[in-house]
Design goal:
The protein is built from 12 helices and 9 strands. The protein is about 35% helix and about 15% strand.
């Protein structure tokens, strides 16, 4: 009989965004509710993932895009719009039903600090369009305003960082938060982030190649955690479980939680293979190594264009996998 599979924890991508408007309090609350039963020694695994931007009047808001146009009934770049006032973003509503307002970082922390949610973790995706010094200063002011924040809040926050220049400021201003690499360029992860982050949040496709397999071993050998995004198809969810990753980031939190419950009832890996084929790894064009590498290089180019060149690399010896 094969060894039991590791069953990853579940992060709600932009909350439970398949059922509610993304990055809203309704989607966050749904993601927390979905994870109420949890796994691993019976402990709940309620984990959220969302994104931060700063308004013109220094309000930190939860929103994916740098502009409002795609998901709301208003337009414009967040950094150029005020939160307060007659035309402020506080009045904006989502296009998707049920229509919701845009939450602030403070409102989201209010949700996390409710007694029933004190075990929920929050992964904050720090978009490269931000000014890190300004953003982290504002975030610290909000985090430190809560009673008992050092014990009951800070340990549950993870900063997801795309660009190396954000790392020193994250250590200086939000040193009590754990740090996570975000991206799909494994060379960048190794060169700039391996020493400074204990978690690596990587696009699913980047881990399907031979180098992706090597990177997964390096992460395991170094005792670090691996999160994979954004995984929605059942066969991809199953592959993450085969890989033994720590966290799956998904739009369909309930789907993975139901699959995970089913998998717990199966005693052997062989019983799973017939239900969830691995053929997609060889038949899906987007998982071919040249395309995966080209996508990573394109995204790294966009990062540099958005937030500037990378600083001198952090010196670190990555463990060599057998």
């Amino acid at each position: 009989m094969a060894n039991p599979l590791n069953l990853p924890a579940c992060f709600g991508h932009r909350g439970a965004s398949a059922r509610y408007p993304e990055n809203t309090l309704a989607s966050f609350e749904a993601a927390i509710r979905d994870g109420a039963e949890g796994i691993e020694s019976g402990n709940p695994n309620r984990i959220l993932l969302s994104y931060v931007h700063v308004s013109a009047d220094n309000v930190v808001i939860m929103f994916h895009d740098p502009a409002l146009d795609r998901t709301t009934d208003t337009t414009g770049l967040i950094r150029e719009r005020s939160w307060h006032g007659e035309n402020g973003m506080e009045r904006a509503k989502t296009i998707k039903l049920p229509r919701q307002g845009i939450p602030t970082f403070a409102q989201t922390l209010d949700l996390l600090m409710k007694p029933e949610n004190l075990h929920a973790q929050f992964n904050v995706d720090v978009k490269p369009q931000n000014d890190p010094a300004r953003l982290f200063r504002l975030m610290h002011n909000i985090i430190s305003s809560y009673d008992g924040w050092e014990t009951h809040l800070a340990p549950r926050l993870v900063l997801g960082l795309w660009h190396p220049k954000f790392v020193p400021l994250a250590k200086e201003q939000l040193g009590y938060c754990r740090r996570s690499f975000l991206g799909n360029d494994l060379a960048v992860a190794r060169k700039f982030f391996f020493k400074e982050c204990d978690t690596f949040s990587v696009e699913f496709g980047a881990l399907t190649t031979a180098d992706g397999e090597k990177f997964r071993r390096e992460i395991k050998d170094a005792g670090k955690k691996l999160m994979v995004w954004t995984v929605n198809e059942p066969k991809h969810l199953m592959e993450c479980a085969r890989w033994g990753v720590d966290v799956i980031i998904t739009d369909h939190t309930q789907r993975w939680l139901e699959m995970r419950k089913e998998l717990q009832e199966l005693q052997a890996n062989a019983a799973l293979a017939s239900k969830y084929s691995r053929a997609f790894l060889w038949t899906t064009l987007s998982f071919y190594t040249p395309i995966v590498l080209a996508r990573a290089k394109r995204d790294t180019f966009d990062l540099k264009r958005c937030a500037g060149p990378f600083e001198a690399p952090i010196a670190v010896a990555v463990p060599t996998s057998a």
